[in-house]
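Entry:
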Amino acid sequence: MFNKILYTFSAKLLTAILNLLIVVLTSRYLGAEGRGVISLLMLNITLIMMCNNFAGGGALVYLTTRENFSQLVVPSYIWAFISASTLSFILTAFNLSPPEYLVHLLLISIIYSLNAVNLNMLLGYERIKAYNFASLFQVFVLFVVFSGLLFGDGNRSISSYVLALYVSFSSGLIATSFLLFKKVHPLPKKNLWDVLKRLFSNGFLVQLGGLIQLLNYRLSYYLLDFFHGAAFLGIYSTGVSVAEALWIFGRSISLVQYARISNTTDLEYSRKLTIKLSKFSFFTTAAALIPLFLLPANIYVYIFGPEFGHINRVILCLAIGILAFSVSGMLSHYFSGIGKFHINTQASAIGFIITVAAGFGLIPKYGMAGAGITATLSYLGSTVFQLIVFCISTRTKLKEFFPENEDIKFVRNEMKLFFQKNTN
């Protein structure tokens, strides 16, 4: 298992570095306002992708090894076109997306959603290396193309980023299609209606929670843009990108955890694995958070540009929430892995209620600081709920989440097995 986690972490570390470099480029050469417009565009693309995942998301990971391939992938693809088309027009009609980006939003979302279906099926087959390669490849292409347009053609406008998105997501779709379709695991066909019911019913529960969770993350973007403008949003979103890069540890671990739990029926093993990985995720995230506190404001100005001196304040407001969610990721993937998607949906709903209440109360008056505090309160509320449900349903004592010598032995043994495997 440590083998897969290390490979996943390496891929996600490279991806995080490339994403941060892209954030730096957009901040320095497009300014705070340009960065704000890009943040809104990417938020809307992600929102559409989350709606697409009602049929092509976490439920697809769960059902990939349980149902016939074609009976899963075909309706997932069709739904990608339907959801992208519908949501693009809705978001534009409600002025949540600039009208001039409607066609781009539609086309890029379709490509991105199809790619997400392929990635989730790769994950369902536990083809972690293929999943990591495809994810890293897509971001690498985005970085290379965007850099080339900025410094080669001198096109320092939002249109250069949009063009880079087209090339990146199209390249990612081609790569995932090749990786997925060359190695399909056939299963006997079942009644198509029964398969569709399982796909959409499980997908609905998973993605309703995911969609609400996205709004927990990003509702503040819409509020900041509305009350304070795109420039404020650009500064805040840059701080969020830096802080959320620390989730690389938890996301690397939870990706392998989810695939492992989805393919086992041993609930006690899943329980112990989740506890150990939760502790590991928390402390690695905490260790990485400390240097961000120590960096003075002028360092952020040097990296991102003169408009971004308040990023350290954003990170400070988000810190406790970032730590809480490093544990929440483990708990979320545990509940998804055993098919109890509704618990994550309930946790997300609690966080969303907190986001709405605190967001409208704090963001108009306190701006970026209010948005950061709102996010932290939301993350804490969701995590505490998940932790309570986990402890009650698995008869786990809270003290089991405190570090102990056995955790060090667990990591040491996994590392030993990893190096033995790769040196023999």
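The two ends are 17 Å apart (CA to CA).
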